[in-house]
Amino acid sequence: MSEFVELETAPMTTEQVVSITRANNYGTWRMQKTWKPLHVVDAEGCYFIDVTGKRYLDFSSQLMCVNLGHKNPRVIEAIAEQARELPYIAPGYATTARARLSQKLLEVLPEGLEKFFFATSGTEANEAAFKIARMYTGKTKIISRYRSYHGSTMASIAATGDPRRWAMEPGGKGQGFIFAPETNCYKCPIKHSYPSCDVACVDYIEHMIRNESDVAAIIVEPIVGTNGVLVPPKEYMPRLRAICDAYGVLMIADEVMTGWGRTGKWFCVDHWGVKPDILVTAKGITSAYVPLGLCATTKKIADYFEEHYFAHGHTYEAHPMTTGPAVATIEEMHRLGLVERAAALEPYVRAKLEALKEKHVSVGDVRGMGLFWAVELVKNRETKEPFNTMRDKVEGKLLVVDQVAAKMMGVGVAQQAWVSHFVIAPPLIVTEAELDFGIGALDEALAIADALVE
Question: Can you give the pTM of this predicted structure?
Answer without folding.
Answer: 0.95
